[in-house]
Amino acid sequence: MEYLDNIMNHVMKKNSVQSGRMKSNVLIMLLICVITTASCNGKQKQAGVGSSDVATDNPKVEKAKEDIVGCIKELYAGTDRIGESNERFACHSWWEMVEAVDKKDADLEEIGFFNDDLWTQMQDSNPDDFEVRDIKFQQLDVEKGTALVDFVLWSSIQTVHQKFELCREDGDWRIHNIIRYRTDSDGKEVEFDMMKEMRNYLAEPQEEASSSS
Question: Distance (Å, rounded) from C-alpha 48 to C-alpha 62?
Fold first, then answer.
């Protein structure tokens, strides 16, 4: 009997040790899971700062959004917009590029690079008829002073889809580039980067530029 008791005690001690080890392992695993989850959440939150600035309640971001929306709406408000938009709403590099294109086209008898209104993509429009709709901030970095804004310009004659690349210059948000969207023969929207196309146009010889416009 004593022999059996010793065996039972040995088994019980062994099971107790194993049980204790299992509990310790479970606790260690739980602790690792908690630490890993907290670390992942921290990384996700940190990574989201740059990409989700547009959606946060950061006062600087909200003020930037308000200023940019105001800039775009003011651009398309009123008849005094035409003829002064470049200097009022665009950055220096933009309107200098536009002036260079206009200078290249000055002696052309036919239509040059700009065959419609630069800001509206329309040839016939009523400035009092414009309405900016569906404004979406695709990128906004207040510290770097850059933004990318997608919107629709509505009028009773035509509706166009555009994007503005903006930069912070002289204390204000100014338009650095216009990305137009046009529909091709297959009904697909094609992107047209104005700054890139103007650079390419200026790089062409005069004869080639005239024939390609």
Answer: 17
Q: What b/e readout covers 21-52, taking b as 16+ CB neighbours within 10 angstroms?
A: eeeeeeeeeeeeeeeeeeeeeeeeeeeeeeee
* Residue 200 near residue 193, CB atoms below 8 Å: no
Task: Spell out the alpha helix ranges (H) of 53-193.
Answer: 59-75, 85-89, 92-105
Q: How far apart are CA 174 and CA 4, in angstroms?
A: 91
In the three-class reduction of DSSP (H, G, I as helix; E, B as strand; rest coil), residue 172 is classed as strand
Q: What is the pLDDT of residues 201-212, one digit of tens each?
A: 999 887 655 544
Give 65: exposed, middle or buried? Use CB within 10 Å, 0-12, 13-18, 19+: buried
- Measured between alpha carbons, how far is 156 from 6 in angstroms, rounded to an integer? 98
Secondary element (H or E) of residue 39: helix 2-51
**pLDDT < 70 stretches in the chain:** 1-56, 78-86, 123-128, 207-213
Would you state the pLDDT for residue 114?
82
